[in-house]
Fold each of these.
Amino acid sequence: MLLRVWDGICLLFQVSDTGIGIEKDKQKHIFEAFYQPDGSCSREFGGTGLGLAISKHLVNMMGEDIWVESESGKGSTFFFYAIFKTPEKTIEGKEVVSEEELSYTGSHPFKVTVIEDNDINSIMVSRFLELNNHEVVALSSGKEGIDLLRREPFDIVLMDIEMPGLDGIETTKIIREPETGCLDPKIPIIALTAHALKGEKEKFLKSGMDDYLSKPIDINSAMKVLYRNVMKRKNKRESRSGVKLPESGRNPD
């Protein structure tokens, strides 16, 4: 524990390694997305250069910052601190949830499938959605996604673009084909992509996707994109059928 604040505690975290270290002039860049201190690192050690960018994003969401102390050839130590509220009351050693926490249920819970082959990205996106009261099923391939959408109704799909086998664009085209047998061929599909270059969004939309989110994902933007696309689909189905659907947007059982 670093210190106790008025309604909680401040914890300092540090993670050390005994790796190759990071040169001083490169330390300020390592939290940038896709940055590699040495062009050979990605080939020798693997990785996309997103891990530290995602870590910084998560820490910043808590209102704090992350930094590194390192010496070339002697390893690195990463630091961040965060403030956590302490329970207001306890009963027989169990935390009592506050009224504010009890009242939070999320404005419109959706059923979401996340199709992402990178485990870290999948866990991060799924956790964000679950914290906002959405039901999530995470898959690692386009084929798994197609099979699932044939069996179960969902409100929206978050689809990684670059996956082995069927990539996100190919998977989307298959889902859109009526003969594929997906329960809702017009389900909203949102691209998850590291390619935020000009013209990429048009490429995704042309392939049949409805919208896109750039990595690292900003959770506030993600919630807006989810809500906008699910409600847009819901409104179209209501206007066509004349039947008011539940808030999730799926057909009632």
Note: Residues 219-241 form the longest helix (23 residues).
Amino acid sequence: DGTPIWAKRYIDGPGIWVSCVKGKERQAVAECYDLFDSVASELWPIDTQVENVDSDSEDEDEDLPIETQIANEVNALKKPKQEPRFVNCQTNTTCVVFISCRPPVDPIQLVVKLVKDVQATGVVRSRCIHRLVPVSAQCGANLPEIQGLCRKVLDPFFSQHPGRKFSYKIELRVRNHSVISRPEFIQYIAQCVPEGHSVELTNPELFILVEVFKSVCGMSIVQDYYDLQKFNMSEIANSKNGGDIKTERRAFGA
């Protein structure tokens, strides 16, 4: 019935899979933090009202007795700190990084914004990052859990477009996984797509991205995937700039 049957995994979604230069995984993580935070600040600005209230409270505390000021400072330290919006999850694999995203960040919106900026400017604000693959949710890489993942990712999208029939393609990438074959994955996921939608391998309207890494399976639905060079920032900049991309960055492209 799609109920999770495996123990909690360290890698969990939603988030973004990142292909990077071999041996530069740590630098890629740092670049991801900078890039993602920059874009997220535009799309989902942090509420500054709380910070202003805290600042006003500090000014008012100056007129209070020292004992009260100390008590207020202790209480302030006990307040839970704001959790980071992006967290690196260890993959222990060369050229592969996974950054989990916390609400309200939508990994699809973030990645599309990033690659469209590169498409418009030809500037890649990274030396190590190549390809970005957003996943809206993840589960264990086994068929019962994948059924639940399909309901979680596919049903909400198609329910937003009642009566409309889409052409789609399942874009599957499997790494370090040999339990389920590629044909099995594709056939099983296709069976979970609501009836009436058709498979189109050349120029589909929708792309169902499926990333299988070891024991984890992630999924998302995107559009314009081919037009945006499969979210490969190096390839987008290469097209924009007529091939003026450094050899080091191209050699390990996804």
Note: The helical segments are 25-43, 49-61, 66-78, 107-121, 143-159, 182-192, 233-240, 247-251.
Amino acid sequence: MDDVQRIKSIWDKLVMAVEDMRYLLDRGYKRESAVNFVASRYVLDRMGRSILYRCVYSSEDAKKIKEKAASPDELKGSRVAVDGFNVLNTLQSFINGKLLVLCDDGVVRDVSEVHGGFRPTSMTEELIRLVVRTLKELEVANVVFYYESQISKSGETSALTRRILKEEGVDGLVETEKCVDSALIRDKRIVVTSDSVVLHRADKFFDLAGYIILREKSSNLISLRNV
């Protein structure tokens, strides 16, 4: 049984856990303490815990992030900054049929817990091209891709992204940074990421991976929207 099937098999229990998690967060409980309490109460496995930790927000936090979300129309003529590995990891999970969640803050996240790394595959070039072409369709003015310099293959991924930008005729730069989160926030562009740390500090963001995934009506996506 894969992660999608497993979560669907415990959906009723997960719904109750999500409701309890929101209740605790709305009353000021720390995220880790709330996750530990709720996950223990409902005997949730690693994936269930990950959904609670990464996808459930207090009403106030969810509202704040949603208010920062740019619409597709707002990207026309805008300058954007892309959290390269964050977007590629989410799209790679989508292509591989991994579990994706439409979270309380309206952002699509993978819950495979592949954080702080990236594994290039035969699909990497196609995924980068998909990102660049989607930005081109949205008529952004220019784009800068940021990749973590300490991650393996960041140099090769950066070079590949530069080539694709040139081939697709999109005005853009590619940079490697030790701390991409800081670079994204410092840049003052519309940021393209699902990283909650960045979203809390950014002025405006666009969930490009989520935009692509929702457009494709992915069968491995579950939504907390009506929970």
Note: Residues 3-56 form one domain.
